[in-house]
Amino acid sequence: MNAIKEAFQSFLFVDGKTTQSGAHFRDAIDLKRGISFVIIALIPCLLFGMYNVGYQHYHSFTPTLSFGANLWQNFWWGFLKVLPILVVTYVVGLGIEFASAQINQHSVNEGYLATGILIALIIPASTPLWQVALAVAFAVIFGKEVFGGTGMNFMNPALLARAFLFFGFPASMSGDKVWIADKCEAFSGATSLAQMSQGAIRPDSSFIDMFLGITPGCIGETSTLLILIGGLFLFITGIASLRIMFSVFVGGAFMALLGNCFGSSAYSQLPFYYHFVMGGFAFGAIFMATDPVTACQTNKGKWIYGFLIGAFAVLIRIANPAYPEGMMLSILLMNVFAPLIDWCIVQLNINRREKRWKEAKNEIL
Amino acid sequence: MYNTIKIKGGCQLSVCSQIPLLSKAENTGSYTQYSAEFYAVKPTDFIGLKPQLLVKETDQIKAGEALFCDKKHPETLFCSPINGKIVSVKRGENRRLEAIVISKSNDDSQKIDIGHQPEQIKKTLLSCGLATTIRQRPFATIANLDQKPKYIIVKCFDKAPWSLNYAKAISMFSDNAAKLIYEGAKALSSIYSNHIFFCTDASLDYKDSFSLLSKEDIENRATILAFEGKYPASNVSVLIDNIARLKKDETVWYIDVQDLLNIGELFASGTLAFKKVICINGSENNYYLTTQGACVTDLLKEQGLYDKEHIRFVSGSPLSGSRIGKDEYISVWDNCLSIMEEGDKKEMFGWIMPSFSKFSLHRCFLNGFANLLPCGCKKPIKITANTHGDERAMVFTDKFESLVPLDIYPLHLLKACIIKDIEQMEKLGILEVAGEDFALCEVADASKTPWQAIINEGLEMVRKETEE
């Protein structure tokens, strides 16, 4: 049980280990600290998500219910709905992590601590727990452990879990019924994305409501404001790459503007800033695309990677009638292409070196 | 007057050890003579060396007499830096020769016959052991004096934390430093009529140390460059990258200015000495004029640190120096002794506490923000040898590119080294680097991966392959 013992020990204490080779002192940062900062950045989204789950539930019965009313009642209802999902993601995911660390005789990497909360935030609150457990197991085993665990995966495990649910249990992940937990049958509950893909000129919710997050949707994805606050925190603490975050939005805006110019459907005529507040665009840009393991690892590559994620996400939204939302698929697609982008950038460096090798440029001599 | 070169990237670390040091020097700017009882030459300091011992224990030896030679190049002699008696020949695993220890007897300086023709210079340097202070890139091995280098670099500054102030060290080394530098440069550059570059720090005042380089007989061959930038601007890889990059099969010789001063002394007066100025923790009041390979025991006793526990002694900078015991010797390449606490204590929940006192380059510690400030404004932060975490998978990789001011993708090179793909390592530029260039990456890495060891291992593989 060494791996488990070590994991708990390292949770309680920073070890007294000293450097044995190379530099004699090290930065105070370790993986745990980095990961825990991602979790801190997600907490506003989680708390608001819990509240919003409760509010949307009660709102479907009483459409006149104002957002600020019955604060604790709403929160408590949402809390009871979301907590089991969180517990399931962590118990199943960490269980598999511990088991695999024990089997492979390596230490438990803390990467899953962020993945667990991310999975809970990107699924609807109405998802059955057994489906959540299945998706988590699939994502952790086939998305991560078979490749060697944390740091070796080429696809974002949280999004893989969502993709598993999306394709494996479409009834729980799409349509109008799933976005509000235990909603009133009579209430429509369609998300803004669904309305747009069905041909609406503008979604029912106002821009500001969508920005604040007072809309049906996945647990933590609705409030662009809180996501941006989390993003700002990640940028200030230097955990997530600003290059990726920024270029996702640029890519999205670019494709949306292209749609405005050349598209014929109502969806393609939607102003670009609407795309940022609808669905999982902002959440994907800030928390998913910036996953340092599955993103490009060269600085130049990060610009391209982010831009293409934004562009493909909007393209899937406006050009593919089957999927109202494109962020998940776009990020997973670019996860697969990230090594290729890096390869191209590194290859340019190699070509430059080979040229120099033959004909060195003499700066001073 | 000097050509100024600006280096982008890197990071100037502002760190301290908080170990109190005593000083015998009268004032800032003066130094103390340090004469140890024992001195040693360590074959392990030299990369790729297969030593053949030429002396035995109890032999009497004079400074400049051979202790051992390189089996592959028997003409390259490694000599004693002092007059004395060989007290022990230390061997490690598989009888690997680790150190030859000499007890000092009397006056060190030795008169030697010298000539000023290129062949004579070469022969003199090889026979008295000063040739072993010249290294070459790629690989940082001892320079092969039979092969013409592209140019020669004289390193006159160091940006690593706690390093020597070279301007000060040059003036301490000799009152006549300008003359010695001139003679040394003339001798070294005339072997193959090479260009010689003096790489200096733009922020240091070297006074008239380089004034004689404008003399007619060397003017066209010597250039003084002033470098502006943060660590690792002083690393030889960065200097080469900014002076002139290498083509296939080309080499560059490089030498520390103190070793050049020794060569200069030899050719100016025929006196052979292996002098060296060292400092402790970069402290202004702890500069010592000593001889290469000095044992640190007496120095530590003087400082009252010899009997203290949980203290680490490092020959060289804390970034890329080598750990030594309290009875061991300063390495031939190092100009400073670093002393820091081991820090081998457990700390509860240390990974999440919002600490103000921990050293970090990352902004998830408040001290990480200090890196945004100009160098002068930073308060030094205490460092210890604690790793602050266990080895983990590499997840946070955003910082590395900016810490290596070379046209290199550090992470990809590291990965090529890990999978031991020699072809890929060469393509990614391993021949342009040394392990020390990745010291900052190693420090900043949250996964605690041993970068320098991995890169050095890669370099060793490539070197062996090239030799075959």
Task: Please describe the topology of this protein.
The complex is a heterodimer of chains A (365) and B (468).
Chain A: H1 2-12, E1 13-14, H2 31-61, H3 71-104, H4 112-121, H5 129-143, H6 157-168, H7 170-173, H8 192-197, H9 207-212, H10 224-236, H11 242-262, H12 272-277, H13 281-288, H14 299-319, H15 327-358
Chain B: E1 3-6, E2 15-16, E3 32-33, E4 38-41, E5 51-53, E6 60-61, E7 66-70, E8 77-79, E9 84-91, E10 97-104, E11 110-111, H1 118-128, E12 135-137, E13 141-142, E14 152-155, H2 166-173, H3 177-190, E15 196-201, H4 216-219, E16 222-228, H5 236-243, E17 252-256, H6 257-269, E18 271-272, E19 275-280, E20 287-291, H7 297-303, E21 311-315, E22 322-324, E23 336-341, E24 347-348, E25 381-382, H8 400-403, H9 410-418, H10 422-427, H11 439-444, H12 451-467
Parallel strand pairs in B: 1-16, 2-25, 3-20, 14-15, 14-17, 15-16, 19-23
Antiparallel strand pairs in B: 4-10, 5-7, 6-9, 7-8, 9-10, 11-18, 12-13, 12-17, 19-20, 21-22, 21-23
Helix pairs in contact in B: 3-6, 9-12
Identify the notable features of this structure and list them briefly:
heterodimer; A: 365 residues; mainly alpha; Ammonium transporter fold; B: 468 residues; alpha/beta; 2 domains; 12 helices; 25 strands
In short:
Chain A has 15 helices and 1 strand; from the N terminus they run αβαααααααααααααα. Chain A has 365 residues and is mainly α. Chain A has a single domain, classed as Orthogonal Bundle (Ammonium transporter fold).
What is the residue-mean pLDDT of chain A, rounded to a whole number? 89
Q: Which sequence of strands runs across the widest sheet of chain B?
A: 1-16-15-14-17-12-13
Any idea what the shape of chain B is?
globular
Number of helices of chain A: 15
CATH topology assignment of chain A: Ammonium transporter fold
Low-confidence stretches of chain B: none
What is the name of the CATH architecture of chain A?
Orthogonal Bundle
Gyration radius of chain B, to the nearest Å?
22 Å
Order of helices and strands of chain A: HEHHHHHHHHHHHHHH
Shape, per Cα inertia axes of chain A? globular
Quaternary state reads: heterodimer
